[in-house]
Design brief:
The complex is a heterodimer of chains A (252) and B (360).
Chain A lengths: L26 H14 L6 E4 L15 E3 L6 H11 L4 E7 H7 L1 H9 L5 E6 L2 E2 L5 E2 L18 H4 L5 H5 L5 E8 L3 H19 L4 E7 L3 H4 L3 H15 L3 E5 L6
Chain B lengths: L5 E5 H11 L4 E4 L7 H12 L4 E4 L3 H13 L4 E5 L1 H17 L3 E7 L15 H5 L10 E3 L4 H18 L2 E7 H5 L1 E5 L24 E2 L6 H21 L3 E4 L6 E4 L2 H16 L4 E6 L1 E3 L3 H7 L5 E6 L5 H9 L5 E5 L8 H20 L1
Classes of the chains: A alpha/beta (252), B alpha/beta (360).
Chain lengths: 252, 360
Amino acid sequence: MKEMKKVIGRPKYLKEVPNHYCPGCGHSTVHRLLAEVIEELKIRDRTICIPPCGCAVLAYYYIDVDMVEAAHGRGTAVATGMKRCLPDRVVFTYQGDGDLAAIGTAELIHAANRGESITTIFINNGVYGMTGGQMAPTTMVGQRTTTTPQGRNSACDGPPLKMCEFLSSLEGAAYLARSSVHSVKQIQQTKRYIRESFQVQLNDEGFSMVEILSMCPSNWKLSAVDSCRYIENEMTQHFPLGVIKQRETEPS
Amino acid sequence: MKRNEKVLLRGSEVIGEAALRAGCRCYFGYPITPQNELPEYMSRRMAELDDRMFLQSESELAAINMVYGASASGARVMTSSSSPGVSLMQEGISYLAACEFPAVIVNIIRGGPGLGNIAPAQSDYFQATRGGGHGDYRCIVLAPAYLQEAADLTYRAFDLADEYRIPVIVIGDGMMGQMMEPVVLPPFRKDLPTKEWAITGAGKGPSRFIRSLLLDVHVEEEHNWKLYRKYQRIERKETRSESYATEDAEMIVVAYGTAARIARGAVTRLRDKGMKVGLFRPITLWPFPTKALVQGAESAKKLLVFELSMGQMVEDVKLAMNGKAPVDLYGRPGGVVVTPVELSRILSRRYNAMQHEAQT
């Protein structure tokens, strides 16, 4: 028998504990990608994460970096305070759609506009997950949630917010990309974007954000496989994937 | 500027300069009258000094959360605002208290409720001394009445915040912010305390986190007990007050901040007329100087609370006295500031009524 070789394993900075996420949820995949990127960039010693209020509030149990929990929506303000005091650290927020695109919109826009050298990992699953599946600012038109039992009506609730496009007019926003974790190909793409967004911060180029379309089978009332299909067939129609903005860096 | 030299400064500048000398490294704030001179002073002075950071935030909500982030990283940090803005900060102050992050918050109180006006008031007493935001917590509340005291207490506020890992509120009003008085400024702090708990990146060690989410009720209860024990320690050690002409006083006026300045003038006038009136001035509003008040009021037949609000501190005075002497209120809300002469007439009437009652 040929000697066996380990080709893949648990990332060094993903703690060896079972996670609390529902089956088919996208959070655990994103956590893994973050742990991999942090290891590859060799920045674990100086990285600080600001976890959100929401399902990912317990991120400190899983990702092995320093963390300070923020109030709902205030991640980018907290990150601003930290990064301004610790300019040589890598500071990133991890926020959901309600946190980032509803209650924390003001803090996000102004942090991006100031070009704060921070990174935001934005999980867009179109619902308030932890509170039980209410309408989020990114809920699709027609999508049924516990507070839109007839489906989201854009005449009443407005259409779903496209945050990357929204921020793209801001000078301070250096890097904005949208990806998904519904397929292997897109998971790999997501990792590349996360890596690039951290690189933008390491180069001190300005604000960077990766929006990640993510499955929430429990609140979508879909199976894990159908949730992936929902992203592929529905969500990506409204939220186009790709790099939305990449500021040309001036030649030095 | 020579050491111990007196300089004539405006109140907002005194608070700002004392904060910088205490080692305040970051300031975050949003404009609101009547405290705009303070962020303006900070923006100017912080640019002159080494390693300081001034940032005008997009709201008071953002400002207090920037304070939270800076404090978590171990920096000495301050924000300032006035009543409506401090209302917006309450969410963040609750989180600061829960995570035991030190911070100094200056509230230059204005008339309210709602948008109110920009005149001097003390109507945020409840908000400051009862925690203010959600949950079971307290902030240390310092109430200077003179600009020298504003300098000393602002300077001290940073030490208290670090020692107890607690938000400290310094309160004043537009009158104190605008007036000018000679002040001896404290020296620049050189050796600031090291903060082992600060979140600065894990380095080679294990990763750490600070949070206020405690889902296990027993863990949350234990956390509340821990905070409570800290608050008891502060009550024992950090309570401050000043008594003026109280030794033989039959009526004691209780007032703080700007109201206490006015009351002192009124009490002096009445003493000149032979009336046995004294002044008790809380310097810490929380912890409230209960013990000192009860001891100082032994000879008093009556206590009269004078506050620029409609009956807030009077509750603490009643709690402190616990029926040992009757407690009356003279409140002037809405930003009205009476003169010492006007107040002396009120006090004189109440004093005479008290003596008349005693005779009949």
